Each structure stands twice: as structure tokens, then as C-alpha cells.
Amino acid sequence: MTLRLGVRGKLFVVSVSMALAVVFLSGLYLEGQLVAWAQARAQVELEGHAGLVRVLLERELEAADGRAPIDLDTLADRAAAPIDARVTIIDADGQVRGDSEFSVEGLSTLDSHADRPEVVSALRDGQGSAQRTSASLTTEMLYVALSFAEGQREGVVRVARPLREVDAAVRRLWIAFAVAGVFAAAGAVLLSGLASHYLSRTLRGLVQDARRMVETGEKSRFATPSHDEIGGIAGSLNRMAEELEGAVATLAAERGRFEAVLESMDEGVIAVDQRQQLTMVNRAALALLSLSTEHAGPTLAERIPIPTLHELVAHALAGNPERREFETLTDPPRQILAYASPLRNRQGAVVVMHDVTEIRRLERIRRDFVANVSHELRTPVSIIRLNAETLLDGALERPEVARKFLEAQMRNADRLAALVSDLLEISRIEAGTYEIHVDFIPVAPIVLRIVESVQQIAAEKQQRITCEVPPDLSAWADPQALEHVLLNLVDNAVKYTPPGGQIQVRVRAEDERVRIEVEDNGPGIEPRHRARIFERFYRVDRGRSREVGGTGLGLAIVKHLAEAMDGGVGVGPATPQGSIFWVVLGAPGD
Ligand code: ADP
After folding, report:
1. What pTM, to 2 d.p., does this model score?
2. Can you name the residues that pair with 354 across neighbouring β-strands?
3. How far is the CA of 533 from the centre of ligand 1 (A)?
4. Is 496 in the pocket of ligand 1 (CB under 6 A)?
5. 539 CB less than 6 Å from ligand 1?
6. Which is the closest atom of ligand 1 to the Cα of 534?
7. Residue-wise pLDDT tens digits, 259-277
8. Which of 149, 143, 153, 151 is CA-nearest to residue 88?
């Protein structure tokens, strides 16, 4: 089991062990010193004692002068008493002659001391000492031996003292150190407690500051409580926080710019990772594909089930950028041109999508227009040519038919001229070279003039044209364009309404706008044609249109001009029969 210690625990263990180690090591050192000092002192003391004993012995020997035998054992006892040491008197041959620790009888049991190191040294050098366990007393002893020579007697005086005292001193020393150790450990515990309290309080402060910064997202700083390491850490953390904030702000700004660019793009952009999971869909892409952000399913296939798009993305992920067109699943479907390319880091692909529905529609209209124009032009041209051929083939010599052919030529030449003129007009409007200056102009004079201009033709068809227009009503319009629009509408009404029909032109104010209506009681227009008759060359009845000299471009021109004046046009049914064409002229800034 591993023991996990906190900062406090570590501090505690380290300081207590340091204190104990210091106490122990100093104990060891002092023990050595004490033992050496005590032994040196004991040796010096014993040397002194041995010297005195030797003097005493020599004096006794001298006094006796060899006449009477001296009781060396008693001498040893006497000498030992005041110095509190063991005194041994040994002959030069090692025989113990007196010993304060043994009685005279006991001496005989002692072996020869000639081999004792201190005795050997003393006999050889005059002095010797040794420390060992006494063979006789079995305790650790310090021996000091001095040689003596008096008369014929030679030998060694040996003084010995047990080293117990030194041991006792050492024991006391260790007891003192044990007490010191306890105090040191207690002090260390106290100090480490205080230090760890201070440390943990300041660290806790740092942790709390950090937690608050993370939770609240506040841009505050760590308090720097002191100038020590903790203060240093707080300072470093503050610098780090500042740098982080800077980096995060730069990243956020980058991201913001990137998102702003993506979101303001009209092109749809989607990004996928290598597993075809969507990683980004911009606003335009959501709109193009009619997706909501809540759409479930993280993969492309789940969110946008368009096979062409999946193939495109798969090729891009395989490293082949491609361009393809597909239809959306929306109603109505939109035509999308998509370009997919692999990301530079090969971690996915990005698809840029353009809505080309309008472009494709315009292309189709242009194609149809060119085909229609060619067709429309070809018909009168071939009629003129056919009639010319007939005339050249001999009809010219027959004046009664020649006139008919020439008249047909004339009619088709007029038709061609009308067509070319309408085509020029429409292309001028589209190219923007038809200048329109919208002004606040009185409507009544223009309306009356137009009605007046068709009165003659209407009268020939026994048609009645009525006109209701408030005399002082003004509208925002270009006079020439308005005249053109009204002429086309009234002319159509006259053309398509059978003889005896009725045509009404009405003008009225409608909110800020002015509404002009041209109503007839002719054949009317079926609802399915109504939306399309403003297209170029769209005709309900081609033969009828040609018969009345129509080009199929009149209403297209009307629509263009009305829109150029910020107005609008439309058609609805009249009751009980006929059509109502209307033009609304807008207020400026509508
Ligand atoms: P056109 O030159 O053939 O008249 P327009 O663009 O003016 O071409 O009109 C388009 C078609 O709309 C006509 O061919 C005709 O079929 C239909 N139309 C226009 N005005 C009327 C109307 N007042 N009543 C019935 N049909 C009309």
C-alpha cells in the first residue's frame, strides 16, 4: 500500500525526521567526544595514581631494604582505598604479588599477568596502558601500568578502574539527547504545523482564486500575499493567466472574424471530417438546403440525403476536388452548384455551394428567347419570300392576284418591323438604356390621350370605350413609359375584344398609390395562362395574336416598364366575362 501524503504530511515528516536526525547525529558525535575525553581523563588520573602507588611501593621496599618480607597485597589494599581503583602489584615474571581486589589466598588462583599488554609495555618501556575486559573481574577496565625497580625487586605497579563510569556518563548523555530529541521533534511538529498552516492557507487562497476565475469566467487576478515563493507562484500564475487571456482573446477574435466571414457569405459552406460527420454548416447552407440547426444526425448522409453531394464529398475526401450540380429536396427544388475540395490537413473536406437556380432559369429563358425570336422572324420572312417567288413565277402578270400577294408581303413586312421594334425596345429596357425619369405627374391627360388615340379603331369595331379618371390625380411615373404601358393595355383590349364589346379605363387613388385598370368584356384569360402572359412571346392563342398583328412582346414590355417605375402589373377576370389588366404606380421609396 502506498501512503499518499499531503503537503502538510510531507512537511511534518521531513521536519520531524530532520530534527531527530540532527539530535541523533549530534548525540553520536558528542558520545565519541565524551568517551574519548573521559578515557583520556581516566588515563591521566590513573597514571597519577599509578605514579603515587609506585612511589609508595618503592618507599616501602626501600624501608624494608630486603630484610623483612613485605606484604604487598596489604600494600595494594591500602593504596587502592583512597584512590578508588584496583591496584595490582606484579613481579617481573608476571606473578601477582598483591591485588586490592583479591585476598592473599585468592592471589594464588590468578594466572601469570606477564602477557597482559599493559604489563608487557610497562616491562619494556616503563609504562603501558590497555583497555579490555578484565579476565579476573570480567568487567571492562582501563589499565595503567608503571614498572618499578627497588633493590632486587622489579615488577609492575598496575592501577585499574572500571570504565563503567564512562558508560554511565554516555548513558546520561543519551538520556539527555533523548529528551532533547523529544523537544526537538515537538518543536519541529509545531513549526511544521505553523508552516504548513501558512502554506496551505495561502495555497488554498490560490486554489480558491483559480476556481472562482474558472467558474465565473472573471478576468480577476490571483492575490499576491507575500514576496516569498508563494507570492512568486501567484505572480507567475497571474502572468500565465494574462498570457492565456491574451491567447484566448486572439483566438476568439480570429474565430469571430472567421465566423463573421462565413456567416455573411451568400454561398453555403459545409465542412465534414474524415468520417463524413458535419463539423460546420453556415447560415447560407442552412437556408439553401432548408435545414434547421436542430436537425438530428451528425453525419452528412443523415442530415442531407442527397446522393450527388455524398459522392462529391467522398471524392474530395479521397483527394479529388470536384464540381457538381444537384437539386435540393426543398419545394420548389433549387439548383445548387457545389464545389468540394479536401482540407489542407487532409482531416476532412469543405463544400462551397452556390444557388444557381436563377442563373439557370435566366439561361433557359435566354435560350427560349433566342429560339422564339428566330421562329418569330422566320415566319414573316418566309411568307415575304414565298410571295415574292409566286409573283416572280408569273403572278406579277396577273394584276388581280398580284395585289393580294403584295398586300401579304406588306402585312408581313409590317409584322417584321413591329417585331424588330418591340425587340429593340425590350433589349433597351433590359440593357438599361431606356431612360426612365420618375416624376410626380398628373395622370388624367395621359390616360385621356391614349383612350383618344384608339377611339377610331374601336369605333370601327363598334366597341365602346369609357374612361373614369379624377382630373387632379397625380402619380409617380415617367410620362413616356406610362403612355407606352397604357397604349399596350388598351390596344390589347381593343384587339382581343370582339366587335360590339365594351372597354372601361378606370383610375383611382389607392392608399399612397395610383391604380389604373383596363377592363374589357372579351374572351378573358384562363387562370393557368394568367401568370405567364407577361413572359416574352407567351400567347394564349398564337393564331389569334398573329391575326391581330401581335408580336407576343407587348405585355413583357408593360411589365418591365411598370417595374422600372417601381410599380406593378397584373391581370384578373372581369364579371361576367373578360379581363381586367391593372397597373399600380408606386409612391417613391416604396
Ligand atoms: P400580343 O402581341 O400577342 O398581343 P401581348 O404580350 O400583348 O402579345 O399579349 C400576350 C397574350 O395575352 C396575347 O397573345 C393574348 O393571347 C393575351 N391577351 C392580352 N390581352 C388580352 C385581353 N385583353 N384579352 C384576352 N387576351 C389577352
Report:
1. 0.51
2. 337
3. 7
4. yes
5. yes
6. 6
7. 899 889 999 999 999 988 8
8. 143
